[in-house]
Amino acid sequence: MLYYALVFLIVAIIAGILGFGGIAGASAGIAQVLFFLFLVFLVISLIAGLMRKT
Fold first, then answer.
1. End-to-end Cα, the chain, rounded Å
2. How far apart are CA 14 and CA 54, in angstroms?
């Protein structure tokens, strides 16, 4: 999931440089959502790992 967030971020940067504002905004929004989902799943995984060890 982090890989896809980085891909969309790169697409957003390239689209922004080339002047495609709509595509850049959409790609940046998707990258942001995927990044925050990754963080949520990371925290859930860490908590589950701690619960499993105790």
1. 28
2. 47
Q: For residue 52, how many C-alpha atoms fall within 13 Å in the half-sphere facing its CB?
A: 6
Give pLDDT tens digits for 4-52.
Answer: 888 888 999 999 899 888 888 899 999 999 999 999 999 999 999 999 9
Do 35 and 5 touch, CB atoms closer than 8 A?
A: yes
Q: At 21, list the tokens.
A: 């504002």
Q: Is the pLDDT of residue 54 over 80?
A: no
Q: How many CA atoms lie within 13 A of 34 on its CB side?
A: 15
- DSSP character string of the chain: -HHHHHHHHHHHHHHHHHT-HHHHHHHHHHHHHHHHHHHHHHHHHHHHHHHHH-
